[in-house]
Design a protein that fits this description.
This protein is α/β, with parallel strands linked by helices. It folds into three domains: 57 residues, OB fold (Dihydrolipoamide Acetyltransferase, E2P) (Beta Barrel); 199 residues, Rossmann fold (3-Layer(aba) Sandwich), CATH 3.40.50; 154 residues, OB fold (Dihydrolipoamide Acetyltransferase, E2P), CATH 2.40.50.1070. Helix 4 links the parallel strand 11 and strand 12.
Length: 467
């Protein structure tokens, strides 16, 4: 291997590992090089595009050897769209890396004793598994390298797709996404085509002009679809587009629009309006049903969510006498999944709308031993709350990617719960929290779950018991 040249090309780099962000890792005289779209076993020449202290980031310009671990990506957008970073890696190897990611986090960040990690639960479907997708409109789409090289005249600059990684103002137009059922592709393409015909202005993210902003689609196991179109104004043209959409796709049983005039696309403070159909779609898990609204939190991989909840229930070890606390309960899916096996379940969630959904889900399922409370976790989990609702025998916690606030972790330490089941979508912050809980709790079981094939993300369940 040669040293860096003035043109910033490194030659004959052997990729020996992969990062948790999905990049290939090579080493050159003590320097770490992260290489886009490479997998373990590739040998490449790579162009440096970012220099940092102790490492470089690079893009491959020539492959000397292709790894035996490679897979041919199914998506034409791979390499430009930042969503599925591991379509070029065999699924068995994706699972190996995710398993290692969990072990490394527990060892290097948590620095705690833990038993052998159970083999990761692989997903039954590695494509078309998502029940929710969100797309963004743009009147200034990203022009791909292939389009630039072809010298063909660009006929349209509109896009309905995903943000280019690192670019808030550039959207890659998506023709075929392989993550959701193909009906989602048909709906998205129809909306873009008919909107262009009607000359409804696509949004400009930099100038904050235009009408069409975002598109949300959800589907359930029964084949029902929910669509929510976000616009800056509900014009006659928008109304006509929604009527066309409803007539074209009878699968859409819940059709919404939302008016957003803010400078960002977040929907947390915006109420969608029903245009046609029902206010929700319903998803079933075992003998339970859950109402899903446009803003509801629900696991985006329904099949794997069921396995995640079953393993959580198994780790909880309920006998029917336990008082269970479900922290970060969302719309109460885990809490209600456990209620049949518990004496009482208390769910706590920051988002008030999610708690309203959780209470309704309890009513719909005839569950009377589950109660839900809204508020900041660190402000609710006080000694008075434990006194009023009883000290927990089992605590389930499923926090966001940032993990638990340190004060929440300390309150759990003070709770005296016999068992804790910690569900996490981020093994790094989970390991950090486990290091704090290690003062009183020992890790007894670790179960990774692959919720998102083709991506670097991994879910992890950890069982802890009071020492």
């Amino acid at each position: 291997m040669k040293k860096e040249r003035k043109e910033q090309i490194l030659t004959n780099l052997e990729v020996t590992a992969m990062s948790s962000e999905g990049k290939g890792i090579a080493r050159l005289e003590g320097l770490v090089v992260f290489i886009d779209h490479c997998v373990t076993g590739d040998v490449v020449d790579a162009r440096i595009y970012r220099k940092k202290s102790g490492y470089r980031e690079a893009a491959p310009v020539h492959f000397h050897t292709y790894s035996a671990l490679r897979e041919t990506p199914v998506c034409a957008h791979f390499g430009t769209c930042g969503g599925c970073k591991w379509q070029n890696l065999k699924y068995s190897e994706q699972l190996n890396h995710k398993q290692k990611q969990v072990s490394d986090a527990l060892t290097r960040i948590g620095k705690i004793n833990y038993p052998e990690v159970f083999p990761i639960l692989e997903a039954p479907e590695i494509y078309r598994y998502r029940n929710k997708m969100e797309y963004t409109f743009s009147d200034s789409r990203w022009i791909t390298d292939a389009e630039i090289v072809s010298l063909d005249k660009i006929t349209t600059r509109t896009a309905l797709g995903f943000h280019i990684p690192g670019r808030f103002d550039k959207i890659l137009n998506i023709e075929n996404c392989h993550l959701q059922q193909d009906t989602g592709n048909q709906i998205r393409l129809f909306i873009r085509r008919e909107a262009e015909k009607a000359e409804i202005p696509f949004f400009n993210l930099r100038e904050q002009t235009g009408v069409l902003r975002t598109l949300l689609m959800r589907n359930n196991g029964a084949g029902e679809w929910m669509v929510c179109l976000s616009v800056t104004e509900f014009s006659p043209e928008v109304e006509s587009l929604l009527n066309q959409l409803h007539a074209e796709f009878p699968e859409i049983t819940s059709l919404f629009y939302a008016v957003n005039t803010k400078r960002n696309d977040t929907m947390t403070d915006i109420d969608p309006h029903i245009f046609k159909g029902q206010q929700w779609i319903t998803e079933r898990m075992e003998n339970l049903s859950f109402r899903i609204h446009p803003k509801s939190f629900y696991q985006t991989n329904t099949a794997q969510a069921l396995e995640l909840y079953r393993k959580t229930r198994e780790f909880a070890g309920l006998t029917g006498t336990e008082n269970v606390y479900d922290l970060y309960t969302g719309t109460g899916t885990i809490a209600l999944f456990l209620a049949e096996k518990a004496a009482k379940v208390t769910g706590v969630e920051y988002v008030e709308e999610a708690v309203i959904d959780a209470r309704q889900n309890a009513i719909d399922n005839g569950i009377k031993n589950a109660t839900f409370f809204a508020g900041d976790m660190k402000d609710i989990l006080l000694p008075e709350f434990f006194s009023e609702h009883g000290k927990p025998d089992v605590i389930i916690t499923d926090p966001p990617r940032a993990g638990m606030h340190e004060s929440v972790t300390k309150r759990i330490l003070e709770s005296g719960a016999k068992r804790i089941v910690y569900v996490s979508c981020n093994p790094s912050t989970q390991a950090r929290d486990l290091a704090i809980l290690d003062e009183k709790y020992a890790v007894k079981a670790v179960q990774p779950v692959d919720m998102f094939p083709q991506t670097t993300h991994v879910e992890n369940i950890v069982l802890l018991e009071l020492r």
